[in-house]
Specification:
alpha/beta, about 290 residues, 19 strands, globular, four-stranded mixed β-sheet, Putative adhesin Stv domain-containing protein, Stv
Length: about 290
């Protein structure tokens, strides 16, 4: 009997509440008369594309590598949508993003970053191009011959060959080795013309004298440099050399007059005609 009374009382309260809500709900619906009703979530306001090119979809995860140009001050794009197009400036290496050469060129063309191999009045230039990659070096030392390419290097599968152009001779370590940081600096500063013309014994003497000039007295470091350059390659104009990939000089001490890159770049894109005797001051190890 008590349960029946409780149920009846509850039903009365529900009906009473419904009677109070109904007029208010009717007023709300009346105000929407003539307006279409939408179901589902509210539409998302998408950003409007700006001048530029679509960012590859794989750059979304690496969005911190790009900046939106806002006047003279770049603003970091924290989370660009895959469909958004923005003018960009490359601020970090994008070698790990899997960009094609065409995508790389398009990104550089859209931004304000210096293009490797193109004259850039904002930087001290080496004979083969601007030192665009000095941003990544541990330390920039004054000077250098201006005849060397500095940074990291490797030979990637399927890279093919690069032909040394007319008027240019290339001096580089033998293929398949990792050179020391000091060896790289020797190639950035030594007289490459004399080094290329010397025989094996005279070459070793030139290297030892240059190490003396650099105040490098540690026997272990000196022996490593001599070993790195023992079978030095001298490639004349018209001859081919493996098309090594030159990378940014992360963690290296380099000279300000050397040519460096801000994107991993094939050697064939860096070589220029009538550049004289130039040096590749990078590793030549295989990277399969």
């Amino acid at each position: 009997m008590e349960k029946a009374l409780d149920a009846q009382a509850t039903r009365g309260l529900i009906l009473q509440g419904a009677g109070m809500i109904a007029p208010a709900l009717a007023g709300k619906l009346g105000g929407l008369k003539g307006k279409p009703l939408a179901s589902g979530p509210a539409p998302v306001s998408e950003p409007q594309p700006t001048a530029g090119r679509p960012l590859p979809s794989h750059t979304v995860a690496e969005s911190s590598l790009y900046t939106r140009n806002a006047g003279s001050e770049p603003v970091v794009v924290k989370s660009p949508a895959p469909y958004e197009t923005v003018p960009v400036t490359v601020k970090q290496p994008v070698a790990g993003l899997g960009l094609t050469a065409a995508e790389r060129d398009a990104i550089l063309a859209a931004g304000k970053g210096p293009r490797v191999g193109v004259p850039n009045t904002e930087t001290t230039r080496g004979v083969l191009g601007p030192n665009a990659g000095t941003y990544y070096a541990t330390e920039i030392l004054p000077g250098g011959s201006g005849q060397a390419i500095a940074g990291h290097g490797e030979l990637r599968r399927g890279s093919g060959y690069a032909v040394v152009p007319d008027g240019t001779t290339l001096v580089l370590p033998k293929t398949g080795i990792k050179i020391s940081d000091t060896t790289g600096r020797v190639l950035e500063t030594i007289d490459l013309e004399r080094l290329a013309a010397a025989g094996p014994k005279a070459r070793n003497r030139l290297i030892r004298e240059h190490l003396d000039d650099m105040d490098i007295t540690n026997s272990r470091i000196r022996n490593r440099v001599i070993a790195d350059l023992q079978d030095l390659q001298v490639v004349k104009p018209g001859n081919s050399v493996p098309n090594f990939t030159v990378k940014t000089p992360d963690g290296l001490k380099i000279f300000q007059n050397s040519t460096t890159v801000e994107l991993s770049t094939p050697l064939r894109d860096l070589l220029r005609p009538n550049a004289g005797v130039c040096g590749l001051a990078t590793c030549t190890e295989f990277r399969w």
